[in-house]
Write a structure and sequence with these properties.
This protein is mainly alpha-helical. The protein is built from 3 helices and no strands.
């Protein structure tokens, strides 16, 4: 992702995605994830908890990369649609 796209992505995440935290479905999923994580961690020893935490961090990083690529694809689509509208 080039600097301009990164800047646009950060702007979108900060300024245009703020309402996600008021989304009932998002809130419900967040609570469910937290509950499930606590449930699983209770049955793990310290080393296993560290491994789980690393796994979750890697999954989060993977998801972030996917979101960045989705954002780039959406920008590309917007450009294509704009070009079609000009014709």
């Amino acid at each position: 992702m080039n600097d301009l796209m990164k800047c646009l992505f950060d702007f979108t995440m900060e300024r245009r995605m703020g309402n996600i935290y008021q989304d009932p479905e998002y809130e419900e999923m967040s609570r469910s994830v937290e509950w499930q994580l606590n449930k699983v961690q209770q049955s793990l020893d310290t080393k296993q908890q560290m491994e789980l935490r690393l796994l979750l961090e890697n999954l989060s990083a993977q998801s972030s990369i996917e979101n960045e690529h989705l954002f780039q694809a959406a920008l590309g689509l917007a450009r294509e649609l704009q070009d079609l509208a000009r014709v």
